[in-house]
Write a structure and sequence with these properties.
Length: 428
């Protein structure tokens, strides 16, 4: 008797997703609640667990297909008390699939690695998270040959990156484990002939399509304007230098820049509440809390988890939460509810070397703060030209709600707090 596997509820207002990868192939043993597929929604990758233990049956959708919430995407064949019992019977069926895995899943060239699950004793670590799977495919690695250090022996991002570094140090017959893809991999670095020009077409991920649509909607709807200011970061750098060791020893987390900016934004938003407000029809919605959307880079694109009630958090709580967001964004384990809501956004392009930018607001929010790189520049202090570590701040805002005076005031309040961090402690 076969049990149907349906697309689970994906979150508020999300009705469909795309099949990102199959984590189990027909014939593979499956434990109850073990992920069998990865779905890509508008915001995150979601793993679909098996409702029962048994053997992987029919796959009713291909990688890249769009599936609706509640749709049947696979079946699980009955296999007794657990997945371990039917494994010997499923093994002969799984073996012939190994050389033929590429034509079965033409949209997922890395799927040929998965059927080896049925022949390995180390099955748990071959259930790959979306982030780990991408790295495996990018470096053409065989996950069954990598030792996992994560929970239950699962592969982590660090495990795969270490294996990739090891591959680089060896001679390059890396494609040999997979005979079918080997010719394509060997052909990729072939020298280009004179006059030859190549193109590659890659389907946009669902996340990238959503980002593109929302950014264009923001441009079409909001009356966007950007105001700039610069900040002397000497005081912040001095505070970090003086207290970073004590801070890390006490709280177990490094003291970074984001906590200073989040606290300064909370202080400034209290004085200029319009920056933390939004437009709903013909009404303005003011918030007595600050939920900060923190833009974080992930393998599948930019994601924006939300730091709730930032106005009430201490430095250690902010740094811990942001570090956790960054780690889980790289691992692809952020939850949908963690990226919903948000009343104000902070985007740090400085970590990539950006000097100046005009960020685009994330509706229904009305403002976004852009941070940039710190560099020494000549400035005048007390009639003398001196070098100071300076950073440009950019505030993009919806001019329908926020006037220029309010935008400038907000940036000035942030500048004052960052150039004299004592203000953050005595609430000035």
């Amino acid at each position: 008797m076969a049990t149907e596997v349906k697309v689970p509820t994906l979150g508020e207002s999300i009705t469909e997703a795309s099949v990102g990868a199959w984590l189990k192939q027909p014939g593979d043993p499956v434990e109850r609640d073990e992920p069998i597929a990865s779905l890509e929604t508008d915001k995150v990758a979601v793993e679909v667990p098996s409702p029962v233990a048994g053997t992987m049956g029919e796959q009713r959708a291909r990688v890249g297909d769009t599936v609706a919430v509640g749709a049947v995407i696979a079946t699980i064949e009955a296999g007794g008390a657990g997945a371990s019992a039917p494994a010997p019977a499923a093994e002969p069926e799984a073996k012939p699939d190994l050389p033929a895995s590429t034509p079965v899943n033409p949209k997922g060239p890395g799927e040929n690695m998965e059927p080896k699950d049925s022949e390995e004793d180390e099955g748990p670590h071959l259930t790959l998270s979306p982030a780990v799977r991408r790295i495996v495919l990018e470096h053409h690695l065989d996950p069954s040959k990598i030792k996992g250090t994560g929970k239950d022996g699962r592969l982590t991002k660090d495990d795969v990156l270490a294996a990739a570094e090891g591959e680089k140090a060896q001679p390059a017959p890396a494609p040999s484990p997979a005979p079918a893809p080997a010719p394509a991999l060997a052909a990729a670095p072939a020298p280009r002939q004179a006059g030859e020009r190549r193109e590659e077409r890659v389907r946009m991920t669902r996340l990238r399509q959503t980002v593109a649509r929302r950014l264009k909607e923001a441009q079409n709807t909001a009356a966007m304007l950007t105001t700039f200011n610069d900040v002397d970061m000497s005081a912040v750098l001095e505070a970090r230098k003086r207290y970073k060791d004590l801070f890390e020893k006490k709280h177990g987390i490094r003291l970074g820049f984001m906590a200073f900016f989040v606290k300064a934004a909370a202080l400034a938003a209290r004085d200029v509440p319009a920056v933390n407000a939004s437009i709903d029809g013909e009404e303005i919605v003011y918030h007595d809390y600050l939920d900060v959307s923190i833009a974080v880079s992930a393998p599948q694109g930019l994601v924006v988890p939300v730091l709730r009630d930032a106005q009430d958090l201490g430095f250690a709580e902010i740094e811990t939460a942001i570090a956790d967001f960054g780690k889980r964004a790289r691992d692809g384990t952020l939850k949908l509810e963690e990226m919903q809501g948000g009343t104000f956004t902070i985007s740090n392009g400085g970590v990539f070397g950006s000097l100046l930018s005009t960020p685009i607001i994330n509706p229904p929010q009305s403002a976004v703060l852009g941070m940039h790189r710190i560099e020494e520049r000549p400035v005048v202090r007390d009639g003398q030209i001196v070098a100071r570590p300076m950073m440009y701040l950019a505030l993009s805002y919806d001019h329908r709600l926020i006037d220029g005076r309010e935008a400038v005031t907000f940036l000035v309040r942030m500048k004052e707090a960052l150039e004299d961090p004592t203000r953050l402690l005595i609430d000035l």
